[in-house]
Amino acid sequence: DIQMTQSPSTLSASVGDRVTITCRASQSINRWLAWYQHKPGKAPQLLMYEASTLESGVPSRFSGRGSGTEFTLTIDSVQPDDFATYYCQNYNPYSPWMFGQGTKLEI
Amino acid sequence: QVQLQESGPGLVKPSQTLSLTCTVSGDSIINGNHHWNWIRQPIGKGLEWIGRIYVSGSTTYNPSLESRVTMSVDTSKNHVSLRLTSVTAADTAVYYCARDPVRGLDVWGQGTTVTVSS
Q: Is A38 on the interface with B (CB under 8 A)?
């Protein structure tokens, strides 16, 4: 099974900061990688798919990079609405899926 | 607008079977354009993918839950179902269903809380 490892688990930032979250897969998943934002009491929201394609309606300050086993999610100029938990997910259609353990972005 | 709504008992006794339904509106399962997934989040923990099902009935499950999970699809009611047997307190979680157009999970239900307790 493919395991997904995110780092850091917690990230402290201020409004206006640039932050980066890393996600590593235990084996190559090509670009079958999605990122989600999750706020308490709400459903997770898809931010990015195919590692770097922004979902419709997601602000352009979010960007993704990577392929194979290493991926990053970057937020340029963090806004107050961005404080949430972020998850990466392997969605390779040929295998079971897995989420990373999450990165909590806090003030 | 596509909407997913989870429903089912909020309380299940240990060793019994958890059964949930996800009703889809604004989209038709029979069109075969998507897989339909179940995900859960235990209180204070991260997201855990449970499994997915296609209109054909083809399923893929999380290996850690595979021995206890069954998913099914009812195209006449436009819903998918989840059954999880032999539940314990570790299965207490918010359960979500979500649509998968093979680019991640783009539409989610609001989630339903299931507590396992006697």
A: yes
